[in-house]
Fold these 2 entries.
Entry 1:
Amino acid sequence: MMRFMKIVSAKFIKSASHPSHYPEEKLPEIAFAGKSNVGKSSLINVLVRQKSLARTSNTPGRTQLINFFSVNDTYALVDLPGYGFARVPESVRKNWQPMVEAYLKSRKMLKLVILIVDARRDLSQQDLDLANWLIVNRIPFLFVLTKIDKLSKNQLNASLRKFKAISGLPEDFSPVLFSARTGQGRDILWAEIDRAAHTL
Ligand SMILES: Nc1nc2c(ncn2[C@@H]2O[C@H](COP(=O)(O)OP(=O)(O)OP(=O)(O)O)[C@@H](O)[C@H]2O)c(=O)[nH]1
Ligand SMILES: [Mg+2]
């Protein structure tokens, strides 16, 4: 198993909404999805050890386009716009599903979707809908529970129990525990990314 991911270079490639504007598919691709404001962009920044490669914000709905990054010219990381935030304009909300589905369906090099949920909150219907959609479309995915720095050990155990009960998923779908504050979970995620990138 890969222990450390040394970041030689991480760069922004482009933003796009329509498939005709996506960058060329040259690298194994990993996409990051989840509710608005859950910490998708922060997680990407921890992975690449850069403070603000992906834009983060206290304002939910910050990432409204699909943002493509490349790491070490080896992986493409894709920051997807978040769902489930009521205060974004209706036009943006209506656009989300077709935009994200078009992306997820069209990328032949997509190796893994990292589905991020807030460890303090219950899984939402939208999280479950996306997970089911990925299963139906045979796209590998993995759950991450993030912001675990905000929970005590007992609270975290309770969250994990709830996650299992609500998701109904078997043990091999146990979520990766993550914190952008402490960096916990970073090496495990890189190992998972590396493994997924090498499967056909
Ligand atoms: N304590 C703590 N705060 C976090 C963590 N991850 C993200 N945050 C905070 O959560 C807020 C949202 O983070 P973002 O990374 O912008 O979230 P996002 O999912 O990209 O949000 P959108 O692009 O709007 O969908 C920011 O204020 C982050 O500092 C974490 O692991 N721990
Ligand atoms: Mg974001």
Entry 2:
Amino acid sequence: MRTGSGNDRYARQVIFPKIGMEGQSRLKAGRVTLVGCGALGTVIANTLARSGVGFLRIIDRDYVEWNNLQRQVLFDESDAREGRPKAVAAAERLRTINSDIEIEPVIADVHVGNIETLAEGASLILDGTDNFETRYLINDVAVKHGISWVYGACVASEGMVMPIVPNRTPCLRCIFDAPPPAGTSPTCDTAGVIAPIVQIVAALQAAEAMKILVGAMDDVRPRLTQISAWDGEFSTFDMAPALDGGGCACCRDRQFVYLDGKATGRTAALCGRNAVQVRPASDTKLDLEALGDRVGSVSNGRVQVNRYLLRFDVDSYGITVFRDGRAIIKGASSPDEGKSVYAKYIGN
Ligand SMILES: [Zn+2]
């Protein structure tokens, strides 16, 4: 019998010269905050835990559902049957994979009020979220406290990755000053997502994470990588000019509008109606007809549109969306639930 603590465990990565023994101890000393443990998050956590990253804080607000199993690699049928919280199910699985590292599951929605605490002491933040609101919050906290983070996103068969090292590479707001208007981008719930793009994006995020954790900073390039898994195409864009341009309110002027809560405060429970109102993350004018087409498939065609609003039913929710991007989600019993339904079907 061999025990799990043998030196063999990391042998193949220690002989890789960019890591070596020194890099391996740096990985062991690494403290990672992973925001979101769904598709991208489970693949990232799986890779980093196996690589021997010493501390993983895994934050997720959701529970495992059957439609997660197609791409969320740490979960199995029993997790879906029991509807176990993703953070907990992931942590338990990871402990059977590597008992030498520390894993802290946190069942929570990341928001203005808790993100600085959750990021405290982190050497790195990994983006496993499915919404722009949280990403802009991560970007603010990362730039404010000088913590590197790795952006990742995917939908359908397309994805994007970008490492962000404050003051060395452009931040998210250097590239995209504000989140895309609500209802303008497809989500996994309207456009679907295939597992290969999840694994490619998360693998590239994990590679950036390993470089940052071992201190190979010259290998962390200011670069946005765009991938189409279906077409087998990669495109990389040099983002260095975005930093040199220097017009960023976040990294240059240190205005953390998302963290200050000025750009949030988006939800309100509608008392006595079992409904929650959710406002979009930025001002918008929605194309309700286009949104109606996108949600048509998930609501079995039960979509009504008039000049003021769009109505559709999905699962047990009755969703009403207005042209200004505001939505009332009937059947949502808390602001967090309302926000999560909004992100799923309308966008961010
Ligand atoms: Zn910036």
